[in-house]
Amino acid sequence: GACDFLIKLIQPLELQRTLDRVVSLNEGFHSNAYAMDHLLQESRTLEIGNNFEDVNRIVAFLTQDLPSFGILEQSQLFRMNVILKEALENAIFHGNLELNPDMRRDNPILFYETAKRKMDIDPYNNRKLLLQIDISRNSAKYLVRDEGKGFAHSDLLDPKDPENLPRIKGRGLLMIMNFMDEVFWNDRGNEMTMVRYRKRN
Questions:
Q1: What are the residue boundaries of the Histidine kinase/HSP90-like ATPase domain, all occurrences included (predicted)?
Q2: pTM, 2 dp
Q3: Which of 22, 64, 108, 141 sits in a 20 to 30 Å window from 39, CA-based?
């Protein structure tokens, strides 16, 4: 009967510990600072379409953890965002949508109108961009692969040689190759890997 059930009184210390655990759990939902201090490596893979208007949001997602890993100072984050924006737009515009780079310079309005039109027609509308991110305490590596025809990357001039600067076409690639510590492509030229190492004091 009812006499077989005993009411267990909650001790004040046990109640306090329970409340502390609940508060701590709630704080964990709102802040990942503690986890980031102990996270050694992070890897993510994304597949996106060719809507170039989404690039800024994707770039912000790709770089949000870099300061926590110590790869970049907060003041350098803007430059990294610009670099990745260039890489993604190059892959979309010149890779998947096969737009001529000269058109962007000579007639920007026509360039973006053509890009929007191609986004909705075969075979361009089915092409995807694959993004792979590997971030550790030592480096950040970004791989960008489009489904276009690729390009002859072996013909690229060394941007770190001052004599080549007037002859290099494409400010995007110039910025990427100057800011990143390593940049390389697959044989086909439709996959670019960029690496930025943590700078030691």
A1: 55-195
A2: 0.77
A3: 22
| Phi and psi torsions of 189, nearest 5° | 90, 15
Q: Please answer whether residues 130 and 74 qualify as being in contact, where contact means their C-beta atoms are separated by less than 8 angstroms.
A: no
**Cα four-point dihedral sign 146, 150, 151, 153:** positive
Q: Which two tokens stand for residue 171?
A: 């400010």
182 neighbors 195 (Cβ within 8 angstroms): yes
Quote the percentage of the chain above a pLDDT of 90: 50
Specify the pLDDT at position 119: 93
Residue range 55-81, pLDDT digits in tens: 999 999 999 888 888 888 888 889 999
Distances (CA, A) of 57 to 1, 97, 105, 144: 63, 20, 24, 16
Q: Coil, strand or helix: which one is 126?
A: helix
pLDDT reported for residue 18: 66
